[in-house]
Amino acid sequence: MASAIHHHHLLPPRLLSVHPQPPRLRLRRPLPRRAAAAGAAGTSSSTSAAAPPPTDAALQEFRRWVSSHGADAGAGAATPAAVPEGGLGLVAARDLPRGEVLAEVPKKLWLDTDAVAASDLGGAVGGGGLRPWVAVALLLLREAARGAGSPWAPYLAILPRQTDSTIFWSEEELLEIQGTQLLSTTMGVKEYVQSEFESVEAEIISENRELFPGTVTFDDFLWAFGILRSRVFAELRGDKLALIPFADLVNHSDDITSKESSWEIKGKGLFGRDVVFSLRTPVNVKSGEQIYIQYDLDKSNAELALDYGFTESNSSRDAYTLTLEISESDPFYDDKLDIAELNGMGETAYFDIVLGESLPPQMLPYLRLLCLGGTDAFLLEALFRNAVWGHLELPVSQDNEEAICQVIRNACKSALGAYHTTIEEDEELLGNENLQPRLQIAVEVRAGEKKVLQQIDDIFKQREEELDGLEYYQERRLKDIGLVGDNGEIIFWES
């Protein structure tokens, strides 16, 4: 990547003749667990290279609006400005020490569910039955429809019409992420937003034409979703979801590696009754330099691309999610589900695997459970119910261990075959400094996914080669009762 700076925009057995069904292993994530609502994102994104910056007049009006409400903390520490990477950011108006307050945005400027309730939209949306993100999305659309009459007009005027988030990509651009989990996640998110739109269009928008005088399309609703997805700060999600004007202009840099929060919500004024959102700089910044924060150290490149429309050239951002599932056709389905639930898991388990890191600790036991059958099925009996997970944390039998290797390796081979480029071809493309932003995102995501899949395959290939040297349940059990020596020899006693 040409620049490291971006916009925020997994006892002797009873002989059985029944063999388990192959476990279900999906290498696509449908609707992501954390994508069911906007605001499950990290922090905000001001704009994107996908959209031109606002006019100078709009920016000047926004600055006046911010200042008139004291949102700039009255100290002139930071000012909104067009930045070289494209779009807007916050620039230091003077030398700023680490921890300096940049903004104190009063609650009256926030767009949240309280603002919805207080607006003329409040009566239309009822008593809070809508998901918070849907309510706030409708508020965005309603205020946009009011034009200059909206109290948020200066803020709405500087919002981009798109980001580089994959939810805004064309069909041709989406072809570049063919075979990736990002593509299936993107399509799942858009289907989810479409479903929500159809519901609110029938129940709220069409019933309140005086509030929405123009035509509100799915693209309009998707825009509002994308704005929320890209601009809401990490902990402000769910019922706390809120857009914070001015503060949400701060951009992301992978040079900021601290997990320490750069903001807080606090009381101000007499008896601390006035609630404000306080933004601080996490590092020292020189006058005239752009101010950055870290959005979320735990997000993968695919998540960054979906939420904000950027990626990082950082292997810790390369990840792949294995979805394992106990098949309902498995003859031991009920027993396996019971064991999984006793150990904090369920019928389906998701394992996020990161490039260069070990497999998640629960993944191998869950895989062994899924593949358990034949002569190993005695471990599923009630006698072992409270101890079986401990046995699954170590190899059960060579057949079982071989099965998990085959299942994973076959799945990796299948997944790798779905991409239309190789890792080598992607690496060559990434050497081109003139890649368009969306192509850069596509290549980095698909290359990262393939590297993780190759890593997973290598781990289980090596495990296959070590099967003869592993110690299995029966050997461990015989050792426990003193029938096998430390070197594996059988111990006999004279009668």
Automatic annotation (TrEMBL):
A GO BP annotation? methylation
Taxonomic lineage per UniProt? Eukaryota, Viridiplantae, Streptophyta, Embryophyta, Tracheophyta
Region feature (Disordered): 33-56
Q: Where is each SET domain found?
A: 76-296
Q: Which residues form a coiled coil?
A: none
- Give the binding site residues for substrate: 231, 248, 263, 295, 308
Major location (coarse)? plastid
Quick one: which residues bind S-adenosyl-L-methionine? 231, 251-252
Q: What is this protein called?
A: SET domain-containing protein
Top-level lineage group: Eukaryota
Organism annotation: Oryza meridionalis
Q: Which UniProt keywords apply?
A: Chloroplast, Methyltransferase, Plastid, S-adenosyl-L-methionine, Transferase, Transit peptide
